[in-house]
Amino acid sequence: MHCTYFSKIFAQRAITIFPRLLTCRHVHQKTTDKVDRVADGSAFITIYRCEKIMVCSMLNKLKKYQLGLVGAGTPTVFLMEALGLVDEATVQAFAGFGIASTVALFSICQLFTNLVGFVYLAKDSSRLKFSYLNFWGDRIDKIVPLEDVVGITPKSSLAPWDRLDIANDKVAYKITIQHGEVLHTPLFRMALKHDPDGVGD
């Protein structure tokens, strides 16, 4: 319970403390959801963006390096102990720190998984396209019919994000109005059924 609470607090701090060092454009490897791929050309208008998505992506990508470091370092330390180069206390300290830091990083970064960085509306208002982060911090683009957009559910008191609901989609997408930028309020309100300046519809 305490770990979850502090993880949420960290997530709120992380996207606030980090300065705007980088822009959101081309922030990470782009992957298109093949199941929902539609030939869209340039027929979409950007209606929302989260300028902190780069920071969230970088934190999620750290998990790869963390696993590599711990995975490579653990057998190395055990080998050094077998050769008499380090004592048992050093091995235990490395293993303990590796496990604890990995669990902490994965717990914190779980908060950024499925976070929406961009939302686009088709010019004919028939489809919604949004880009979100997957578990490893890569960008995933998804296109859905506008009628499948259920809307945004405002966050609870401790949750750092609001929730974006899509019909017949089990993924819990996350979106932040507080730390994001609505570029076209009327279209955003119509497409996501939520008033960014007040109470949702």
UniProtKB/TrEMBL annotation:
How does the protein associate with the membrane?
Multi-pass membrane protein
Membrane-spanning residues: 67-86, 98-122
Subcellular location(s): the record lists: Mitochondrion inner membrane
The record's listing under InterPro entries reads:
Tmem186
- Glycoprotein among keywords: no
User: Record keywords: Mitochondrion included?
Assistant: yes
Keyword tags: Membrane, Mitochondrion, Mitochondrion inner membrane, Transmembrane, Transmembrane helix
- Name the predominant localization: mitochondrion
- Superkingdom in the source lineage: Eukaryota
The family assignment reads: Belongs to the TMEM186 family.
Protein name, UniProt field: Transmembrane protein 186
Source organism of this protein record: Nesidiocoris tenuis
